[in-house]
TrEMBL record:
Protein known as: Phosphoesterase or phosphohydrolase
InterPro entries per the UniProt record, alphabetical: Calcineurin-like_PHP (IPR004843), Metallo-depent_PP-like (IPR029052)
Domain of life, source organism: Bacteria
Pfam families xrefs: Metallophos
Domain Calcineurin-like phosphoesterase residue range list: 1-101
Ranges of compositional bias, category Acidic residues: 174-185
GO MF term set: hydrolase activity
Upper taxonomic lineage: Bacteria, Pseudomonadati, Pseudomonadota, Alphaproteobacteria, Hyphomicrobiales
Disordered as annotated region, ranges: 174-194
Gene3D superfamilies (alphabetical): 3.60.21.10
Keywords: Plasmid
């Protein structure tokens, strides 16, 4: 089983092509490439953590059609982003977490959220904060990085790839944090294992 982290496909959103500098002629080409890339990586035994902005300005019929064409993983958890409307939230996600989703995979802890944070649960225990929203416009650091498709060649990133990339990035000292009392061990409330 492979665990994937991804965000910001913006299915159906023509404006993101210019806004994020995506190399597609139009929204149809973009959606087709994103669907193909998803299907080449995601398997029925995969687990996907989707960190928001699945679609934007996408008519419900088109949204449903795109969803049906994607390889269905064993589980797909959504941490909603600012563009995830009622139609997106109504898709058959395994779960929808409207806050920071904490999970463990590959012997690492993760704090997942749509937006980049300056501090997060587990920061002092080497938890990686993965986020979307920024469309590869913010520099990553060893303990915090963008997992949106714009930062990963328009493919979902496996946890192994995220860890490898994080290890190559520079350290960044976020200053003092106060999460001493927090219990973020696997199995604690709010912490998921794939």
């Amino acid at each position: 089983m492979t665990v994937f982290l991804t965000a910001d496909h913006h299915f159906g959103h023509s404006g993101i092509i210019g806004n994020a500098g995506r190399p597609f002629a139009d929204v149809d080409e973009m959606d087709e490439v994103l669907i193909r890339n998803w299907n080449e990586r995601i398997r029925p035994d995969s687990v996907v953590y989707y960190l928001g902005d699945f679609a934007h300005r996408c008519p419900p019929q088109r949204l449903r059609s795109i969803w049906e064409r994607l390889t269905r993983p064993k589980a797909i958890h959504l941490v909603p982003g600012n563009h995830d409307d009622a139609a997106t939230l109504a898709l058959p996600w395994t779960s929808v977490e409207r806050g920071i989703l904490r999970m463990s995979a590959n012997n690492r802890r993760f704090s997942l959220f749509h937006y980049a944070l300056r501090t997060w649960p587990g920061i002092r225990r080497d938890a990686i904060h993965a986020y979307g929203h920024s469309h590869n416009r913010m520099p990553g650091f060893r303990n915090t990085l963008d997992v949106g498709v714009d930062a990963w060649g328009f493919v979902p990133a496996s946890v192994e790839e995220v860890i490898r990339r994080a290890e190559l990035l520079p350290e960044f000292d976020f200053g003092e944090t106060d999460d001493e009392a927090e219990d973020d061990a696997p199995g604690a409330p709010g912490v998921r294992a794939p």
